[in-house]
From TrEMBL:
Keyword Hydrolase in annotation: yes
Origin species: Citrus clementina (Clementine)
Family: Belongs to the TRAFAC class dynamin-like GTPase superfamily. GB1/RHD3 GTPase family.
GO molecular function: GTP binding; GTPase activity
Annotated protein name in UniProt: GB1/RHD3-type G domain-containing protein
UniProt-listed InterPro entries: G_GB1_RHD3_dom, RHD3/Sey1, Sey1/RHD3-like_3HB
Domain GB1/RHD3-type G: 1-98
One GO term (biological process): endoplasmic reticulum membrane fusion
Region span, Disordered: 607-659
Length: 659
């Protein structure tokens, strides 16, 4: 009424019977509050959304006394109320606002306009009786058929079966059940309004299709997963059989896409006009995703194989080349890297041919493999640079402690220790210069000359350098003409390593010098010339005495042999190499057993000739006396050379002829 006609004010009168002792002033606000809530909940046109209740209604609350208790008062109140109704159209009466009052002469026109508004408003356009009946009955029949379909045993079994797996002829079976349901509806609504029954049939069909759609989607899911599994198996078998990747992917995807289309056609419901392109596109994406994953896995395997080959073919040789660092180390490494990289790239390119990839992607993969080869060399160089100090000491030890024939050096006093040390340190410096930077770009640098000038030639040029400049060429963190990314050992680190290297190899040089001096002292047994001259002058009388009595010479010779035997037996020179005090202590423990052993040997040597010559003692006594000195010397010589060493367990003996 508010939307179609102008507002009219109406009086709402609430009459409360049999009023109790509760004052009307307490009851009226509660009643008005409930009415206001009803008004707020009523949907209103946009123009009257904020219009208050008082614009349309005049609410009054009247209370009447109890008829049983106050009959006279009740009748008076009713008579007064009746008078208000009698005079309701008077100004201020119950009829309320008179804005909508039309004169009697205009009633015909007013009624005509009201009817026109009612006809033009669709909300008030009620349908014909047969349409209303058809609507109600067709809807009832449709609901019955829907319930009958939902309880259909055949549909229930089909729905349960499709949850566990695909069903052959699913579309035909479900279409048949749907057609039976719709045919039953058509038979029962045959005589109702055609428009109504068609509309309700469409609604029933939509509801049935909405009911069976989850089962249909499950069927599509089984078809997609089953076909995809078959595709994966066939694709793997094709690749295992040696077929090219691109060819196998094309043939398998085409065959199983056709198989998927056939399976979907078998599952199509005749009553539904559902678009199958989305399901087909999803299956195509699954196939493409699997092909892409297998491609990535195969390419990853190929890359890993060729990277492993490069790692194996480069790591060991590069380590060996860096171990024997010289001027040809980096050229040899570059040559090795170039040969191995070209071989690997050639094989990798041939392996990529079957993947049918675009040229740009192929070039990127080949470039990545080439960079990996460089990375292997650089990583090995960085690894070896961390052990450069150990390798420098090994090279120094090898050159310093071994001769040109790789035999251990014996420091006899004739070797040029200074020259050997310089040669060994120069070779170690060469190793340091080679390991200082990565040189894979065939560019020259001055690292070796800088190190030589700063570390080897620094002493000889110290004065000149101090006079010219105070700049230290190694006081830097970078090399000239060498980028920091290619630097393995900075100049400052080289200086520190060289200082540590010299301090750790200084001991070997000192030991060699000490051994050389000790060897010289051991080999020089003659006294000084002045001592020899003094001995000749002061010992002239004793020398003449020896010449006058040759028997003294025999005793002196025998004493010399005994002393020589003791010297060899006790190894006096070897004992005193470790110091005077340890030598004296060792000799004191070995002296008495050695003397006893020597006397025993002399006794044994003296008994043998006596036994052999016993039968001839009397006839040739004079002859034996004539040869006594010679025999004694011979026995002493034999005894002195037949002494057994107790220190090292080795027995020294000279052969004696038996007659």
């Amino acid at each position: 009424m508010m939307r179609l006609f102008s507002p009219r004010k109406t009086t709402l009168m609430f009459v409360i019977r049999d009023k109790t002792r509760t004052p009307l002033e307490n009851l009226e606000p509660v009643l008005r509050e409930d009415i206001q809530k009803i008004w707020d909940s009523v949907p209103k046109p946009q123009a009257h959304m904020e219009t208050p209740l008082s614009e349309f209604f005049n609410v009054e609350v009247v209370a009447l006394s109890s008829f049983e208790e106050k009959e006279e008062l009740f009748k008076e109140q009713v008579a007064s109320l009746r008078q208000r109704f009698y005079h309701s159209v008077a100004p201020g009466g119950l009829a309320g606002d008179r804005r909508g009052v039309v004169p009697a002469s205009g009633f015909s026109f007013s009624a005509h306009e009201i009817w026109k508004v009612i006809k033009e408003n669709k909300d008030l356009d009620l349908p014909a009786h047969k349409v209303m009946v058809a609507t109600v009955r067709c809807e009832e029949i449709a609901n019955e058929k829907y319930s009958s379909f939902a309880a259909n045993e055949e549909w229930y079994e089909l729905e349960a079966a499709v949850q566990s797996g695909p069903i052959s002829s699913f579309g035909k079976k479900l279409s048949s059940i749907l057609e039976t349901c719709l045919s039953g509806y058509d038979g029962e609504v045959l005589y109702f309004d055609e428009g109504v029954r068609s509309a309700k049939r469409k609604q029933l069909e939509d509801k049935l299709l909405q009911l069976v759609q989850p089962a249909f989607q499950s069927m599509l899911g089984h078809i997609r997963s089953g076909t995809l599994d078959k595709f994966k198996d066939a694709f793997d078998k094709a690749l295992s059989g040696g077929e090219g990747f691109s060819s196998a992917a094309h043939h398998c995807s085409k065959f199983y896409m056709n198989l998927f289309d056939e399976a979907c056609a078998d599952a199509v419901i005749e009553q539904a006009n559902w678009d199958m392109s989305k399901a087909r596109d999803k299956f195509q994406r699954d196939v493409d995703a699997h092909i892409a994953s297998v491609r990535a896995a195969k390419l990853g395997e190929l890359t890993a194989i060729f990277e492993a080959k490069l790692n194996e073919s480069l790591s060991g040789p590069v380590e060996a080349l860096l171990d024997g660092a010289n001027n040809e180390t980096w050229p040899a490494i570059r040559k090795l890297l170039r040969c191995e990289t070209e071989s690997a790239i050639s094989g990798f390119s041939d392996a990529l041919y079957g993947f049918d990839m675009d040229e740009e992607t192929k070039e990127k993969m080949l470039a990545s493999l080439e960079n990996y080869a460089k990375g292997v060399v650089e990583a090995k160089a960085r690894e070896e640079s961390g052990r450069v100090l150990m390798r420098m000491k090994d090279r120094f030890t090898s050159l310093f402690s071994h001769d040109s024939d790789s035999m251990p050096r014996v420091w006899t006093g004739k070797e040029d220790i200074r020259g050997i040390t310089k040669l060994a340190r120069s070779a170690s410096l060469k190793l340091l210069s080679v390991m200082a930077a990565i040189r894979l770009d065939d560019e020259t640098d001055n690292i070796e000359s800088t190190l030589t000038l700063a570390l080897v030639d620094s002493r000889s040029n110290a004065t000149t350098n101090r006079s010219i400049t105070n700049h230290d060429p190694l006081a830097s963190s970078t090399w000239e003409q060498v980028p920091s990314s290619k630097t393995l050992i900075t100049p400052v680190q080289c200086k520190s390593l060289w200082r540590q290297f010299k301090s750790e190899t200084e001991y070997s040089v000192t030991q060699a010098i000490s051994a050389q001096e000790a060897n010289k002292r051991n080999n020089n047994w003659l006294p000084p010339p002045w001592a020899i001259a003094a001995m000749m002058v002061l010992g002239f009388n004793e020398f003449m005495t020896l010449l006058r009595n040759p028997l003294y010479l025999g005793f002196i010779f025998i004493g010399y042999l005994l002393i020589k035997a003791l010297w060899v037996q006790l190894d006096i020179s070897g004992e005193f190499r470790n110091g005077a005090l340890p030598g004296l202590i060792s000799l004191s423990t070995k002296f008495l057993p050695t003397v006893m052993n020597l006397l025993k040997k002399l006794a044994e040597e003296g008994q043998i000739p006596a036994t052999n010559n016993n039968p001839q003692r009397n006839p040739v006594r004079a002859s034996m006396n004539h040869q006594n000195g010679v025999s004694t010397s011979e026995i002493s010589s034999t005894a002195s050379s037949g002494v057994t060493s107790s220190g090292n367990g080795t027995e020294y003996s000279s052969p004696r002829k038996e007659e």
